[in-house]
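Ticket #4471: structure output looks truncated?

Reporter: J.K.
Steps to reproduce: submitted the chain below (162 residues) through the standard prediction queue, then opened the result file.
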Amino acid sequence: MSAIEPMMSWVDVSVSVDITRLTGERLGENVGSTSVRFDVSAKLEEKERRSGMVVVSFGLVVRTKPNVAKYEIEGSATLSGKDALIDKLLKVDPESKIPFVFHRVYQHVFTAIYTLASLMGTTYPPPDLLFSGKQGIPVEGLEKSGQGGTVVPTAEVKPAVK
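Returned output as attached by the reporter:
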């Protein structure tokens, strides 16, 4: 079960994502049908807070194993809505140790990574790399079938937000 109460809707808080840096590096040849593992490192830090609005900076590094590609993304997300709902989105899921706001951030980040990977001719992580299928809840250590093989997210998030 999610720590976010069932009556809370994702539309109750607006999340605007601004990607400020996106890099990709091809580390080896595309492995095709060989099993690929995606390791994820992430960080989130609160930068500004006003009534009804919070700005957080984020960083995300996605690496493949075997070494095929590495993607690095940095940016900020502006959350707007009721303070209590914003605070719930900034809380860390006790199971995955990932703040719930990464649901929205990763949606935008995935599109950028997918485009970059397509241009580079490398493999890309699946759109649900950090989340379970039905409820979109971040998970850690869950194996899934992804593009090119197995996905094992190992996210480490050190939020500065409480």
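Triage note (M.O.): checked the attachment and the full token line is present. The chain has one domain: 10-151.
Status: closed, working as intended.
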